[in-house]
Every structure is written in C-alpha cells, then in structure tokens.
Description:
The protein is mainly alpha-helical.
Amino acid sequence: MVAVHTSIAILLVIALIIKVRIDPVISLILGSLYLGLAAGVGFAGTIEAITTGFGGIMAEVGLLIGFGVLIGALLHSTGAFRRLVGQLVQRVGAGRLPYALTSMLAVVMPSIYVDVQVVLAAPVARSASPFIGKIGLPVLASALGCGIFAGYVFVIPGLAAISIAGLLDIRLGDWLLYGVVIGLATALVSTLLMRLLFHAGGFWKPETDEEVDEAMIEQEAADRAYLTGEASTSEEALAQTEASATATESEEGVRRLPLVVLMLPILVPLLLIAFGAFAELGGWSNDVIAFFGDANMALFIGLLGAYTLSRVSAGSERTNEAMEDGFHTTGEILLITGVGGSLGAVIEATGLDKVLGDLFQADEGAPVVLSILLAWFIAAVLHLAIGSVSVAAITAAGIIAPILDSLTISPIVIGLAIASGAMFALQVNSNFFWMFKSLLGLSTKGTLKTLTLVTSVASVVSLPMVMLAAVVA
C-alpha cells in the first residue's frame, strides 16, 4: 500500500497544480500531508518529515541557489550572456546549439552539484532560445536537463556515478570508460528525439507552458534590444546583431570587457569544485583544498567576481538593480524548492526502499537481461518515489550490493543499469524540478513536458546501451 499511496500523492500534487490551478507550494504541502497520514507515518512524524525535509534541502542548496541566481543576474547586467550566445551561434550554429549545450554539460562539466549547473546554465539557455525560434526554450531546456543528469549518473565526477561505483566496488577508471560513451550518446540522442517532438507542432504551448516573472521579462527585453529584435540564424544577421549590439551597449553606458573575463565568475567556481572533487578522489585533499572546493564557497567567490565585474562594466546603479532582481527571483525559488524537499522526505519516511529490496532479493541468480531490467526498475521506482536521483541511485546500489556476487553479470553493468533507471521521470517531488521550473521561466506543465519527459526518454534510451555493455563487460 505504500507504493499506492505514494503514487496517489504524486498524482494529487500534479492534478492540483495543473487542473485546479492551486499554487505549487500549497499543493506540495497537501500531497505531503496526505501521504504521511495515509501511509502510516503518523501526525507527528508527518510534520517532522515536512519540516526536516524543508530544512535539509535549504542547508544543502539554499546558498547555492542564492549565490547562483545573483551571479546570473549580475552577468546579465554586463551583457555577458548575450555575447556568449552570439559567440556560440557563430561557432557552432543555431541548429547545433542544443547538442553543444547538452554535450558540454554531460561530458565537459559533469558536476557533483547539479544545482550549480542549472543556476549557471539556465540564463544561457534562456538567452539562446530566440535563435532556435518558437520552440527554442523547450528544446534548450530539454537539452540542459538531459545533459546535466546524463553527466550526473554516468560520468565521473558526477555524484551518482561516484556513489554507485563506490557501493558496488567498481574501479573508477573502468566506470569512466563506459560512462563517458553512454552518457554522451544518451544526451545527444535524447536531445534529438525531444527536438523532433517539439518540431512536430502543437505539443508546446507558450501561453500555458511558460511562466516568466517580471525580472525575466526585463532581462529578455534587454536581450531583444541587444539582438535587434530578431532570432535570425544567418551569419549576416548575426554580424549585424553584433555590430548593433556594440553600439547599443555603448549608448547604455556599459563598459565592454573581454568575454572571457566576464565568464570567470562561472568558470572559476566550476574549476574549484572539480579540483576539490578530484583531490578527494585521489586522496590528496587537505583543509585548504576542501575549503575552496566546497560548492558554497566556490560560488561565493564567483559572486564576488560577478559583483566586481558588474560594478566595473555596468556601474553601481545597474549593479544594485541586478541584485534586487536576483533577490526577487531567489525568494520564490527557495520556498518552492524547500517544499519540494518536504514531499521527498515524507516519501522516504514511508520505508518504500525496504519493499523494493525484498523484490530484488527474491530474484537472485536471474538471467542477465532480467537482472539489468530489475536493477533499472528498482532505481526508477525509487526515483519516482523519493524524487532524488542521487538518493535513488545510492539506495538501489545499497539494496543490490549484498547479493551482487550471486548474479551472473558484471558489477559495472548492474551499476550502469542503476544509473540509467535513477534518471527516470524527474518530477514534482524533486526540489530540482522546482528550481528548473523557476530558473527557466516554465509553468509546471511546461516543466513536465521538458525536464520530466527528457529524463524519462534519456533513461529509456540509455537502457539498450547498458544491455550492449553487458556483451563486452
């Protein structure tokens, strides 16, 4: 009955938000209360799970969200994202932009902290969307979500990848060999399929699928002025855009700094986090490296850099305006993200993981294909229930690890199957879902059509690749 009540709670939240149009915060709390009471967590236990879940998420990502959103707002004031998008379109072309974005997130910058990636990459995706036309936003949102999680579960140093490899005693070098190939292929194929779906027409409806706040509207008005109001993909139009943009910036009193300098507030935190992660993996970390490699500290350093560059480039008045816009956006994201964490905590308190553990132990010695499917299924159900990719991956690996020796299959294949399943259908009980929604200016329905759908597609797309890996592993 725990699984049934969990399903009802998730469907209840979705129905209240989409059909009844109740605010997500209220809907999530109602879903959490129903599940806790119906599944036997109890009155006191339900309240405790809601409050501790909220507090736990805030402790984990609260500063990351605040610092990341402020960095984005400040860099917007300098015109950095507009110029970056112009450079990307010039170098790779608008048609290949989604594939470049998803590949970069999956393989070049697989982060231990997916929250860092989304707060830094979302402004780039929104600014670039006009170049792809009316479906630019859903295509790039899907590419962003798929790239982040394909890297997170398959590519070192993604937290889920490291956790699975550690729990199943898989050498990181062996995992990296398979993970990079499957992660990159999954991101590219899934992005292509999503693009074909949106191109088919009628699926994406901006009036109901997009939900942009005032700060985003102001930023995008500035972007349109910078881009001369055209989302043209031709080289000539782009050259005209660059020329007119330079004049526009000069007229607005923005000092034009080198683009590579303006991007340092993003690049430096990512490098610090990556260096700290590899130092820890290599066993040569120390207090200083851990201090600067901590995501909160790294992003604060990025925020200091963004604030300084904004003061130099845009002046103190525009910098203060950008900070105010960032604070406005941050408050909404923090509240809805925390309440999303509350629902996940209530689900975790129901003990659903024990039910799934009994399921796998009943099938020891199963054929290879069945073992892969069962590992994928358990990770997928855990993710659907708990709402956390990393927790689902870690829990699934913990369930399977004790009986791994009895399976007639390589541990790395089971690990890859867990990684594939852990991506499946990221939805409303995930705090990341609500961060993604707010940062990209999507409605709940729009986020289901992009993030939830693309992670489902990516999970299914990667499964045959895992089965193929079983042939050679």
